[in-house]
C-alpha cells in the first residue's frame, strides 16, 4: 500500500486514525501552539495530539476552529494526567478537557501513565465516556505488557491504542508484537530520539535516499505500521516531518535501523514513575 499524508490505520472499533500527527508537548499555550497547529493543518496533517498536562488544549481548539476544516476531519487526542486519575476525577478531567478544547467530543482519550492502584478505575471512566459517545476511541499511554495484561483482565473494552516511547534506540519489539497480536495500535511519542539524529547509520541512509535524518527515522516508523506524532513548533520542521511519502526504505535498511536498538529511553520508565 502506498502511504500518503492522509493515510490512516483502522482501530479495533473501525475508527480511522491518521498514521502521522503533530504532537504539541511543551508548546506554549496561545500563539505558539496555535501557529504550530495551523501550519500543520494547512500542510495536510489531520491529527493533533495534546494532553491536559500540556496545558495547551485551548490553543489546539482555537487553531482547529480557525482553520475552517470541519471538526470531523481532524483527529484530536488528549489524555488524563496522573493526579486526575480515578473514576470520578477522570470523568471530571475529561469534561474539563472538552471545555478547554471547546469541543463536544474527542477522537481519542488516553490514560497518560499506568498509575499503580488507579489506572483500572481510570480506564473504567474511559469506557463510560465511550459508551456515552463523548469519545470515539479509548486507549492507554506508556503501558508495558504486564500493565496491558492486567487491564485486559478486567476491562470491558480493549484499549484501541497504546502510545509509548518508541524509536530506533528503543524499538520495543516485544511490546510491538504483543500489541499487534491483540489488535492494539502502537503509537510512538518522542520518535526522533530527542534529537539524537547524528547516528552514523541514520546519516548514511539520509545521504542514500536524499532525505534528512528525521525523515529517515519517521519513515521507518510508518513502514512498521506505527502511528507517530513528532513534536515541533517550527514551520520548516513541521513541513519536513510530513515530507515522507515520495520514498520508501528498502527492507534491508529497515532491518539495519532495527539493529540500532539499545533499549535506551529518553523519558521515564513506566514501571518507575513518581509524578
UniProtKB/TrEMBL annotation:
<dbReference type="InterPro" id="IPR023210">
    <property type="entry name" value="NADP_OxRdtase_dom"/>
</dbReference>
<keyword id="KW-0560">Oxidoreductase</keyword>
<feature type="domain" description="NADP-dependent oxidoreductase">
    <location>
        <begin position="19"/>
        <end position="261"/>
    </location>
</feature>
<keyword id="KW-0521">NADP</keyword>
<dbReference type="InterPro" id="IPR044500">
    <property type="entry name" value="AKR5G"/>
</dbReference>
<feature type="active site" description="Proton donor">
    <location>
        <position position="54"/>
    </location>
</feature>
<dbReference type="InterPro" id="IPR020471">
    <property type="entry name" value="AKR"/>
</dbReference>
<protein>
    <submittedName>
        <fullName>Aldo/keto reductase</fullName>
    </submittedName>
</protein>
<feature type="site" description="Lowers pKa of active site Tyr">
    <location>
        <position position="79"/>
    </location>
</feature>
<comment type="similarity">
    <text>Belongs to the aldo/keto reductase family.</text>
</comment>
<dbReference type="InterPro" id="IPR036812">
    <property type="entry name" value="NAD(P)_OxRdtase_dom_sf"/>
</dbReference>
<dbReference type="Pfam" id="PF00248">
    <property type="entry name" value="Aldo_ket_red"/>
</dbReference>
<dbReference type="GO" id="GO:0016616">
    <property type="term" value="F:oxidoreductase activity, acting on the CH-OH group of donors, NAD or NADP as acceptor"/>
</dbReference>
<dbReference type="InterPro" id="IPR018170">
    <property type="entry name" value="Aldo/ket_reductase_CS"/>
</dbReference>
<feature type="binding site">
    <location>
        <position position="112"/>
    </location>
    <ligand>
        <name>substrate</name>
    </ligand>
</feature>
Amino acid at each position: 500500500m502506498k502511504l500518503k499524508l492522509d493515510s490512516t490505520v483502522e482501530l479495533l472499533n473501525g475508527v480511522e486514525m491518521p498514521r502521522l500527527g503533530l504532537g504539541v508537548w511543551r508548546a506554549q499555550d496561545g500563539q505558539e501552539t496555535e501557529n504550530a497547529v495551523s501550519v500543520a493543518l494547512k500542510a495536510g496533517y489531520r491529527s493533533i495530539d495534546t494532553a491536559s498536562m500540556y496545558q495547551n488544549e485551548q490553543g489546539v481548539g482555537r487553531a482547529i476552529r480557525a482553520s475552517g476544516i470541519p471538526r470531523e476531519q481532524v483527529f484530536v487526542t488528549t489524555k488524563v494526567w496522573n493526579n486526575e486519575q480515578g473514576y470520578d476525577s477522570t470523568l471530571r478531567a475529561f469534561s474539563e478537557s472538552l471545555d478547554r478544547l471547546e469541543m463536544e467530543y474527542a477522537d481519542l482519550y488516553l490514560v497518560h501513565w499506568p498509575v499503580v492502584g488507579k489506572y483500572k478505575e481510570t480506564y473504567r471512566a474511559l469506557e463510560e465516556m465511550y459508551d456515552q459517545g463523548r469519545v470515539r476511541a479509548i486507549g492507554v499511554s506508556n503501558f508495558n505488557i504486564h500493565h496491558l495484561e492486567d487491564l485486559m483482565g478486567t476491562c470491558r473494552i480493549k484499549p484501541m491504542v497504546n502510545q509509548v516511547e518508541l524509536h530506533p534506540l528503543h524499538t520495543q519489539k516485544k511490546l510491538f508484537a504483543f500489541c499487534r497480536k491483540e489488535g492494539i495500535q502502537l503509537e510512538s511519542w518522542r520518535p526522533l530520539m530527542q534529537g539524537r539524529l547524528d547516528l552514523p547509520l541514520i546519516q548514511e541512509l539520509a545521504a542514500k535516499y536524499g532525505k534528512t535524518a528525521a525523515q529517515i527515522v519517521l519513515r521507518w516508523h510508518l513502514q512498521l505500521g506505527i502511528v507517530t506524532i513528532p513534536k515541533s513548533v517550527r514551520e520548516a520542521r513541521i513541513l519536513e516531518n510530513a515530507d515522507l511519502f515520495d520514498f520508501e526504505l528498502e527492507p534491508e535498511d529497515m532491518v539495519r535501523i532495527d539493529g540500532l536498538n539499545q533499549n535506551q529511553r529518553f523519558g521515564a520508565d513506566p514501571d518507575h514513575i513518581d509524578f
